[in-house]
Amino acid sequence: MSLHTRYRVRGMTCQNCVKHVAKALSSLPGVIHVDVSLEQGSANVESLAPLSLEKVQSTLKEEGYEASEDGDPASSGPGDRAGPSPPPLPGPVTGPVIQAETGGLSRASFAIEGMHCATCVFTIEKALKREDGVGRVNVNLATQSCDLTYDPHRISVDRILDTVRDAGYTPRLPSSEETSREFRQEALGLTLTAIIGLPLIFLPMSAPTWISLSLAILLQAIGGGSFYRGAWSALRQRTSNMDTLVALGTTSALAYSILYVLGLASAPMYMTQALLLIFIRFGKLLESWVKKRARNLLSQVVSLLPETVTVLSADGTPRSLPLSALKPGETVLVPKGERLPADGILTETEAWVDLSLVTGESVPVHLTQGQELIGGTSNVGSPFRMTVTGLGSDTVLSRIVSTVQEAQSDRPSIQRLADRVSAIFVPVVILLAIVSFALFEFFTANTSLSVMALIGVLVVACPCALGLATPTAVLVGTTMALKQGVLFKKGQAIEDLSNISLVAFDKTGTLTLGDLSEVGWIPCSGTFPEDPLFRARIAHAVLHSGHPVSQALSRHLSDELQPFADARVEEIAGKGIRAFFPGENPVRLLVGNLDFLREEQILVPQEPDSAGLLVGVAQNGAYAGHFRIQDRERPETQSVMRYFQERKIPVALLSGDRKEEALRIARRTGIPEGSVHAPLSPFDKRALVQNWEKEGLTVAMVGDGINDAASLAQASVGISMSHGAGLTQEKGDIILLGNDLTRLVTAHRAAVMTMRKIRQNLGWAFLYNIIGIPMAGGVLYPFFHLLVPPYYDGLAMALSSVTVVLNALSLSFMFRPAPETLG
Which of 102, 263, 539, 700 has the most CB atoms at less than 10 Å from its CB? Predict the structure, then answer.
């Protein structure tokens, strides 16, 4: 059973505040999970026991925040944590888009059709956040999607989707078909606009006015209809967006032409209206194409699974079935060259599998009987049989894609500036357009020029570029990183990793291979009595521990293993193991580091200064001896250290092993001896990371995810080495897929390049509007009598968004895997 308590937190102003509050609450005893919302000013805390409100308040007060309890703790078991099942999605929105989350919340993800600019994102988020029961909301312009958390007891999915519709947008299930349909719609819209608009451009002035005016009205209805619908939806939400600007600009041109027909203006603006709509629709088509290409990058990573599979019956008879008919537990034959249809267990003696789709491994991996297989990877050796364990959304590949999509919907804090600007952008542009019109009318008395300045300012302004700057770069960066074996679980981790000022490494399993293959027993020099079951008891004690040291001992003592049905084993994280073996002569066994034995009141002789891990053993309170275990450093470690040191980023080693062993690995990997911290417990590691961060450092902690969970969670960026198929369950903000530390360099390079593209995009978006709006408003006219025609302004507006997306897409050509030898 676990308890969920909601607290109101005052004083949070940014995402850094969210991080500080989450870390402070996570440090409280018994806390399992913390979910902090900046928008709602709240924190949902899951704990194993009731928390003292005074303790919570004092903890947050130390960080500069105030807290009060909001509602009573609600107990729940693991099976009902997310409440009752949410209602099915209505209409065309079908499929598995709802997931359970901790903290009593559920999560929904869906696509949104009809978004054009950053203001659309702001409008949808504002509408959803007003709904009672909605928590975190992330709307992504680049992927045309929404990801949010909600309380199913207070709001239904139907209500969430209705809120999106009421805001003027259409929620749909994300799919490649949706992106293709959007592109086809834009192509059709441009074609119809060109067919109607081109005659207006080339129609002679002598043509009957009723023909020209009829075409202009038809053009506005066909070519500008989508902009009117978008502007009306925004107006209903008491806001404005890019559609508002285009609708006002093109309507102004049409209105001036109508005034000409009525004899109240000197010349029509048919050509201006037609070119504006053609250029803007052409830009929308280009934007749709490049966004479609960006969104399809992830689908290129995930190749299609085979449509049919060969299933073996109990007597070995093969039969072909569609993939949809496959069930867990069935035995499947995978031919050479085919992709694995699902996750499973290898039942043959061996297999050679290409894991590049999942881990970025460039060389096929040799697997043996009983090892896990990942769906979507390729069989590059002889045909083999496998037993299916996971299908569909339960596969590793599906979880990876879901994790990447979550990261792509998470906006780094640098995007907050663009969000704040977009909230006031359109009203300011409309005001500037009116000012431009008034100034031209006052100083030139030329209504035609005044209207052109008005239209130019309206159509040249581009909130789209602001909205696309960050999410498109994050989309491309996270996808390209995944291709090289790096899984970003949060978009914010990209920004944090690019700004790190210290990299801290765990030792065993991170800087070393973790195989601990050389094991030797050194008995106590005293008169410890011989016991034929002594080694068998040690083998039993370490059998089920996940720590690499325990696993090395288990492999070394595998031949000694015997069953002890009544034995009780307790593991103390980062220290050792207590085991009790009842019987006529009960035995109490301790296995762990020498400090652990001393804490247990065991008299331990002076330890030698030689290198290697020392694992002491005590039986019934008497020291029996120790195992000396040698580990090997990773061959790529020196080049990784050199990479960071050349960039003036300090590195440190945090180890739970003896100082001598930690120094041995540090000397062999290039870490300065003054940066070695050992021996440390998991809690000591966390405290050290916390102290560094209090000093203002941005710390990246790299660990194997087994006993480093606390320090990974504490660090600004937690980076976990993945050692198996359960890689999306690893701790940390970033996961290095495959057993290769060089992926850390790949992750840092990806983060730096992605942030560089984000800054370039935001810089371009701001610079474009800062220069474009005054130019369209006639800033050059007093000096050169030059006014940029509005249709050129419209073309520039359309191309600005395309420029931002293409700049982000250039990441896919620039990004290369980290070389084998760096520096």
Answer: 700
Provide the 8-state DSSP code for 512.
Answer: B
For residue 795, the SS3 value is helix
Q: Which pair of structure tokens corresponds to residue 151?
A: 């309380």
What token pair was written down for 723?
A: 């050692």
C-alpha dist (Å) from residue 516 to 170, 411, 425, 603, 668: 56, 41, 60, 27, 16
Pairing outcome for strands 651-654 and 676-677: parallel
In angstroms, rounded to a whole number, what is the distance separating the alpha carbons of residues 735 and 192? 48
Per-residue pLDDT tens digits for 686-739: 899 999 999 999 999 998 765 677 788 888 998 988 754 444 445 678 988 877
Q: How far apart are CA 692 and CA 698, in angstroms?
A: 8
Is 708 among the catalytic positions? no
H/E segment holding residue 5: strand 2-10
Asked if residue 679 has a cis previous peptide bond (ω within 30° of 0), the answer is: yes
Query: In whole angstroms, how far apart are CA 192 and each of 50, 245, 274, 561?
Result: 65, 21, 12, 78
DSSP symbol at 511: I
Cα–Cα nearest to 192, from 285, 99, 308, 96: 285
Q: What is the largest CA-CA distance in the chain?
A: 118
Rounded distance between C-alpha atoms, residue 629 and residue 549, angstroms: 8
Reduced to 3 states (helix: H, G, I; strand: E, B; else coil), residue 616 is strand
Q: Which two tokens stand for residue 339?
A: 């992709």
- Distance in angstroms (rounded) separating the CA atoms of residues 73 and 51: 9
- pLDDT digits over 154-175, tens only? 888 878 888 998 888 888 755 5
Number of CB atoms found within 10 A of residue 292's CB: 17
Q: Which amino acid is at 80?
A: D
CB proximity list for 191: less than 8 A, separation 6 or greater:
none
Better-predicted residue by pLDDT, 40 or 466: 466
Amino acid (1-letter code) at residue 643: Y
**Cβ 484 vs Cβ 356: under 8 Å:** no
Residue 301 neighbours by CB under 8 Å, 6+ apart: 357, 401, 479, 482, 483
Distance CA 496, CA 45 (A): 24
Contact 288, 244 (CB under 8 A): no
Q: What separation in angstroms does the CA of 334 have from each of 30, 202, 355, 384?
A: 46, 64, 15, 6
The tokens of 823 are what? 């520096």
User: What sections of 361-411 are H helices per DSSP?
Assistant: 396-409
Find tokens 């297989």 and name the residue: 373
Nearest alpha-carbon partner for 226 in 92, 112, 115, 93: 115
Per-residue pLDDT for 505 more than 90? Answer: yes
Using DSSP's 3-state secondary structure scheme, residue 4 falls into strand
3-state secondary structure 640-696: HHHHHHHCCCCEEEECCCCHHHHHHHHHHHCCCHHHEECCCCHHHHHHHHHHHHHCC
Q: Residue 24 contacts by C-beta under 8 Å, 6 or more apart in sequence? A: 59, 60, 62, 63, 65
Query: Do the beta carbons of residue 576 and residue 589 sit within 8 Å?
Result: no
The per-residue pLDDT for 78 is 32
| pLDDT value for 303 | 52
Question: Given this model, what pLDDT does residue 484 score?
Answer: 85
Cα–Cα–Cα angle for 539, 543, 544, nearest 5°? 160
pLDDT tier for residue 100 given thresholds of 50, 70 and 90: very low
Binning the chain into helix, strand and coil, the percentages to the nearest 5 are: 45, 20, 35
What is the residue type of 672? P
Q: Residue 807 and residue 294: Cα distance in Å, rounded?
A: 11
DSSP 311-370: EE-TTS-EEEEEGGG--TT-EEEE-TTPBPSSEEEE-SSEEEEE-HHHH--SS-EEEETT
Place of tokens 């026991």: 49
Pick the catalytic residue: 147, 243, 506, 708? 506
Question: Judging by beta carbons within 10 Å of its beta carbon (0-12, 13-18, 19+), is residue 510 exposed, middle or buried?
Answer: buried
Taking the C-alpha atoms of residue 823 and residue 807, their distance in angstroms, rounded to an integer, is: 28
Q: Which amino acid belongs to residue 606? A: Q
pLDDT at 608: 59
